[in-house]
Fold:
Amino acid sequence: MTHMHITSWVLGFILFIVVIALQNQGKAKPAKIVQMILRLDYLFILYTGGDLLGGYFASIQMPLFAEAITKAIAGIWLIAVMEMILVKKAKAKPAKAGWIQFVIALIIVLVLGFIRLPM
Structure:
């Protein structure tokens, strides 16, 4: 399940970059289509992440369990920030705060996912 989760969020980042590139080129209709596909990928990311989190529920070891919950919250935060950035860019509003949150949440998720947590 770990490989499916990593594949799904890598696909999510690729689709995120594609939507931003399409929005920057002024192609609103294709950007909206790709954004809808990205939203479906969010569901897959949440499903696979929830399955991984369920593995930590099965073996409750307090430090790892707390870090897994923190990673889950940061992952949901990252998805919300990605959506917020895309909506703000579509409305031609500044998204600097969104990008700052994106970097912070991404660092938290990557450090917890690849360095701290065993699954």
